Protein 1
Amino acid sequence: MECRTEGAPWASRKIPISPRGVYRKISHVSATIPKTMRAVVYRGVNDLRLEEVPVPRIKSSELLVRVGICGVCPTDIKKIHFGTQSPPRIYGHETAGTIVRVGSRVQGWTVGDRVGLHHHVPCLDCHFCRHQTFAQCETYKKTGITAGFEPAGGGYAEYVRVMDFCLPGVVKIPAKNTLEEGAMLEPVNTVLKGIRALSLLKGDTVWVAGAGPIGLLFIGMLSELGMRVVATDLMESRRQLARRWGAWKALDGADPNLVDLLRALTRSRGVDAAAVCVPVDAVVAQAQAALRGGGTTLLFAHTLRGKTAPVDLGTVCVDEKGLMGSYSSDFTLQKEVARWVFSRRLDVRNLITHRFPLAETAAAVALAARPSEDSLKILVEASSTQIAGGTAL
Ligand SMILES: [Zn+2]
Ligand SMILES: [Zn+2]
């Protein structure tokens, strides 16, 4: 069954809205939902166009969310710049907004709830999920949030449809928090997942290569967890930021003696782990050289397939230096991530430097692809009105 998405409030009806089975009579529509909306459609390599498209129709097991904010993510930039997926699609997956329609069979959500979304949710039941490699699960690989066309996140649009298998990835934003914080849940989750994979002990020394938005999240969380963080970046402004986010040391990533410096900071033992948050192959070799025996290099930014780089395999076998990757989010960390963000133990608001209106999404993506001295996390604002919870953006 499909719910109508168009038209003025079309009759109140009784639907189950709470997991406790309480039935309340509510209006099915919070505001007039138009038939069409603005969306930024990917039409080919580096070709993003503002278009008028139908507002998605939802099924009775789905939600319709009016998008407030969507973060610009490097993986979107990759898809737009390299054309790794076929057009047309509507990208944007770091999405937060307000529920405007609840399918009649959906429980636990109500019109007006402010929510952060996850566009990938694992089945928790398959071989990959049993091995906790959720990002390899077939269900997880499906994108369950769309603004139309082949599902691709849809955050660069005014409304998104949340499919039933992505409902477990909907997180309520507390009244005291902003939509921006809701939009940061997904990237923070990916970082915490990466940190977990490193099996660190308190007091360990971790090299974070690259102090952009993701690098700073690593620095902030690692230092909060009691690690000594050595950050590197080519930009002095970002090295200063790295210190402000808790880095113990912040070094110039271009220093030719970088590996020696890193080893010297650990009395020659080598760093316990390296989080490579820049897609630079030379840094991987540096990381392997800077690690202690049994340490781990985590690849976080090498998201393009087909790239090869020489690795001294003896460092992996004899020195037991791990070389691993981490990609996307971990569903089981959702609650913990919400606590980090909403309690502001990790104040992600400090990361946001630019907001672009939806019509200027292409400019937002261009800036995120070529960051300036003063740019960090860049957001697209799909709408700045009709946001419940009293939060004006
Ligand atoms: Zn992302
Ligand atoms: Zn699975």
Protein 2
Amino acid sequence: MTSAAHTTDVVIIGAGPVGLFAVFECGMLKMRCHVVDALDTTGGQCAALYPEKPIYDIPGYPRIESLALVEKLAEQAAPFEPVYHLGSPVTGLSRADGAFRLSTAAGVSVAAKAVIIAAGVGAFGPNRPPLPGIEAYEGKSVFYLVKRREDFRGKRVVIAGGGDSAVDWAISLAEVAERVMVVHRRPKFRAAPESATRLESLARSGGIELVIPYQLSGLEGEEGQVRRVVVADLDGKTRALEADCLLPFFGLSMNLGAIAEWGLNLERNHIAVEPATCATSVPGIFAIGDIATYPGKLKLILSGFSEAAMAAHAIYPLVHPGEALHFEYSTTKGVPARS
Ligand SMILES: Cc1cc2nc3c(=O)[nH]c(=O)nc-3n(C[C@H](O)[C@H](O)[C@H](O)COP(=O)(O)OP(=O)(O)OC[C@H]3O[C@@H](n4cnc5c(N)ncnc54)[C@H](O)[C@@H]3O)c2cc1C
């Protein structure tokens, strides 16, 4: 949907898994939603960062690929006819006549009785290594995420970093790539212990080459095509790795953008909420999913689902003042828009 002024019950910032499920939970309570996202696709981190990875801790799914999960969430939300405004970050939030008015960089404006912030880690982008001229290679032979594992079949891949993404992708790409080299500053990896052990065992069997202790120092190539990744050890001694592509995995930069200016109680870039309702310090604004914090918070998709349900129940009286909300199971009432 493009620029225009809209009115709805609830406006949701973030179309990640948690924002999508919030559409369903609001819908079950007769509340219509518009959803705004900076990315040009729904699915948040699942779609943008690890679409082909299986997730194992979604209740009822022993294993589900990340992209399949968000597709199912969008399908579950669809009967409630959410309106998506994708590809544009939120820029402002004001209050007038008892309603919130949210605006986006694309000129969309949505008036709503309540706001749910499901903005995950904020509008996210990769932490780029400071290599001269790297921009010329980005999207051609330097990638900050793996969209399709098959794209790396038969390639010589250099992975840089020591966290979960670097280790998991090294293990996964070792099955398809001609060669995988992992550049890391220290011998120890900050990944899940079983993944780190698997990486080390692959390195011992020759499936992966560990380039340690080294860090990225430069790129050589032409017309966007990397030919060599230059790495330097702690004494500055360099080595050139013949490669077809570089995958730097140095985490995400997190940018709350305009959300940080709305007077919400922030704790280290997260929004502090009241755990039973997900209410923020500003009445009418709720926060759920990765962005919300409270004592004991677990940053898991399943926690976000539960928070979506709690926020929807807390929002109900704002949208339907004076109407009693009788708690009902979905098995009792079905999906209202379908019945
Ligand atoms: C590699 C990896 C593996 C993972 N594996 C698991 C797992 O196995 N199990 C599990 O439970 N969790 C896992 N996670 C974590 C899981 O992906 C997150 O908990 C989940 O995505 C949080 O969902 P969310 O909807 O709160 O936020 P997100 O998925 O981050 O979505 C937030 C959305 O908000 C948008 N947004 C942010 N700021 C703005 C703004 N200012 N304006 C407009 N839009 C904005 C973003 O563009 C984004 O689309 C994994 C994460 C990674 C990176």
Protein 3
Amino acid sequence: MPELPEVETTRRGLAPYVERQKVTAVSIYDHRLRWPVPQDLPRRLIGRVVDRVDRRSKYLLFRLGKDTFIVHLGMTGSLRVYREPPARRAHDHVDLTFGNGVVLRYHDPRRFGAMLWSPHSALPHPLLADLGPEPFSPEFNADYLYRATRHRKIAVKLALMDSRLVVGVGNIYANESLFRAGIRPTRPVNRVSRERLGHLVAAVRQTLAEAIAKGGSTLRDYVDSAGEPGYFQLDYYVYGRENEPCRTCGSAIRGVRLGGRATSYCAVCQR
Ligand SMILES: [Zn+2]
């Protein structure tokens, strides 16, 4: 599933080709994404200029004047830029053509992604309304986490993956960040001290930043490429390493299920 680093890399990969470009054609080959692609999307987009491409959590936000075209990649979605588009393949659902001849193509085998239109309004789109701070924003800090979690007894890992608390920390990055912060994923979040929450904030940023940096080396995969953009394989400390030795202390990494998600940790390094 594309996580925040993949979405941010997608944004960086396509932005130079579509920003300040006018949409000249929109082809919708299949409307059936997570929600139907709006029937009037071509009418709304054609003739408009994409001012810039932003990201909020895992949503890509194409800004056109005061309106926003919102794209979410779901489980298996990807966006690719073509200067000369090849013939459509299976699961290519939407093409946006721009004045510079570039085609932005949306591909999604499982069709859990979304394409939505948000007209100018004082209120954010409902999907974005309840999102917590971005992990790299100053609002995400030890004091904020401390205040927001004192009354909550859920496991710290589940709190970290709750997008109302902070956005963009999926399962892989929650596991890895907690290892780097030395915090056991199952510990009740209200029993993690302010100081240790500060370590966690730093670890989340470091882990995501490393993945985004790794994504930088794959940017060319988003342009004129035949294959699917890959996922960024970090050298994980704990994720997917159950029963293997901890890279720090050599103990066997333990695996448990937490909220239905694979959770791994070192019982010596994480308390
Ligand atoms: Zn260890």
